[in-house]
Amino acid sequence: MGYSQPRMPSTDPEAFIRSPLQNRLKFVSKEWGEWGFGAARKISVMYLVKLFGGFLLGGAVLITLTSHLNPLEVTSWWTNPIVYQKFVVLAMLLDSIGVGGSWGPLAGKFGPYTGGILFWSRPGTIKMSPYKWIPFTGGNRRTLVDIFLYWGFLFSLATALLSPGQSATTLPALARFQAFLADPASGMPSWLAQNADSFLLIQTTPLILALSFLLLIGLRDKIIFLAARSEQYALPIVFFIVAPNFFEVSDMIIAIKIFLIAVWVGAGFSKLNRHFSPVIPPMMGNTPFWPPRWLKKATFKDFDNDNLLPSGFAHLLAHGLGTIVELAAPLVMLFVAGNAFGGQLTVTLATLLMVGFCFFIISTFPVAVPLEWNLVFAICAVVFFIGYPNSAGFSVFDMSQPWMPFAVIAVPLFFVIFGSIRPDKVSFLAALRQYGGNWATGVWAIHPDAEKKLHRVFRPTKDQIDQFQAMGMPYIQAEAFFEMSLAWRALHTQGRGLFSILLKNVPDVDHRRVREGEFACNAMIGFNFGEGHFHNEELIAAIQEQAQFEPGEFIVAWAESEALWRGFQNYKMIDAALGVVETGRWQVKDAAEAQPWLPEGPIPLTVTWRSPEFEKLQFTATDIVGPDALPEPEDDAVTLGVNTQALNQFVAESETLVEVAKR
To answer: What is the separation, in whole angstroms, between the first and last Cα of the chain?
Structure first.
């Protein structure tokens, strides 16, 4: 892997893509284990510049200047409430535009790097309504109403970000807060007491408008609602509005603390499953700057001898340094107050541990790249738990009303519990199952002669293969490189089940274009963040309205997340022309114990229903290359619209006929 050039699969690309699917899965799984996706290192550098230069430094300058603070006097504003309030709003705005998470090559966007706003500002693009039974919210194409709501939301967030803050002269709660911080009897740290008179709060009127627009958007289009990372930012914005206007500013700070802990503990809880340990090897494999290859290979049981199940070392990283830390350290941060258990020193150490946790995730450049979110959480952890010590009156026990901690925790707790029991009803994002490995997901298998039908779908970008070719990469090479995305799925438990569905039910699968559903979905709706509900039968039906595939041309293997410790995952086999044609389940244990390329064959599948129309499926693919293998015309015939190959064949046949006639 070079700085400027991607690492291409170390094989002959044409021989590779013509080999059986299982052989390809084995090859790309081992390639990913050592090299990850293979993106050029300059791509990772670009992400780091975007994160630390653009978001952190650029954001700090923008936030301080618009709040009438001196950006160079960091010690005077690093605990100023308006700074972290605006960082949250900035992160939500960037995600809502499409330049935060799910941006760039690591999210399947190679040209252009941004999806988001290019799709969501355009009438006629695909939207996904979450509650079609609500009047005036149905349909799968955006209208001018959707565009108005989207731009109203962006404008409201931008207004809040760029407006000067509210001061103590207009907000009594802030005046009380400043007096509390400056009171010598309160025992506040110097960085709070000395700077209290300059503290500001964000303007709440544009935030109220933003949440109103977001609610209306959410009723009509779950894509934008989740792309805005509403599950992470909407509730803190509610705290920004409610606490200073009806209660105390300190209540807002403590509420944010509780919310941060709820997110981390919820994510830690979601990792108590069979899916999480297999996440570690592909995550470490995609790390471009560290660790060395031998350490990446050590996360597999026996990499050199083709055993790519997670090793004991991977289990230790997953549940020792992962799950336990993410459950224990946040609880220490929240509940250690006063001098008990080491007091603030213990809280500070636990906080720095969680900051390190966030930076570790950033260092792995995870697919979908939620980098800004991790940085926001790292910033907030330092500001809230070190800048506003529990022992100084900012612990969970210090809220002005005894019911408040329970009210704050109620919303995230509900979604964690209900989303774990009924993952089909709640996005894994709202259920706080980030990085846990237990996701709804899918894989597409398209007949080579039919993939071009996807071009009929109205959208501002093309499929990734076309994006590669527009960059000058020949089709054969592009196909070989893009199959690296299948390694990511195969190395996770769901991949073994999804590929089992294809191997069992699609006899010509070796000759089909197989696409990772998350990347393919990105090219259709401009966003994906690991949320398989974005590319279930609803999206396939929306695509089919425009693409008009024939039965059997476009097959999808799709699976729901495992419900809480049920031990199995439900799946669907979807045909674009016929809809869902089969449902069933597989045992998670079988998937977790199978090698990524299924050398023993498909894992056992239990079919629970099969459509009578299943028999209509046609499987006729004989060459994965398909029409893309035809040589490009080399003369002016292309300008005249002449099929050179057909013309040459006609001339050859004519000459043969002439020779026969002469005889």
So the answer is: 63
